[in-house]
Amino acid sequence: EVQLVESGGGLVQAGGSVRLSCAASGFKFDDHAIAWFRQAPGKEREGVLCISSNDDGSQYYLDSVEGRFTMSSDNAENTVYLQMNNLKPEDTAVYYCAASRVPDTVVTGACWWARQYGMKYWGKGTLVNVSS
């Protein structure tokens, strides 16, 4: 059974930093794309960052976080992280970890493929509240 469990959210002042963790189980990182999404109050869910073994580094889904957010993985611990710096009130949202197995025929660009076809597995999310 695939499980994704997010942690690390909370209340932070604008300009501050937070690191979210996503503990994954039930699948191998090697053949999956893993991503962070967020949903702000009253808004649609949007992709933030993605990582996979056949992409060249993490892939940004959201231009507004480039230079402030980074994503990393610890394959030995089956955990991915979202480091968020210089947070802004508009970053307030529930942040979700998501994953999807990528077909063997996708030899590069797994994060693009996952964005096109959707993520299969989702965590329950963790709230990040940025105060001004």
Structural account:
With 132 residues, this protein is mostly beta strands. It is 6% helix and 47% strand. The chain has 1 helix and 11 strands. The longest helix is centred in the last third of the chain and has 8 residues, at 110-117. The model has no long low-confidence stretch (mean pLDDT 94).
Mean pLDDT: 94
Let me know the largest β-sheet. 7 strands, mixed
Helical run tally:
1
Quote the distance from N terminus to C terminus. 40 Å
Instruction: Please give the share of residues in helix.
Output: under 10%
Low-confidence stretches: none
Structural class: mainly beta
The rough form would be described as globular
Strand tally, please?
Answer: 11
Strand content: over 45%
What Rg, in angstroms, do the CA atoms define? Answer: 14 Å
| N to C succession of SSEs | EEEEEEEEEHEE
Short description:
By secondary structure, the chain is mainly beta.
Keywords:
132 residues; mainly beta; 7-stranded mixed beta sheet; 4-stranded antiparallel beta sheet; 1 helix; globular
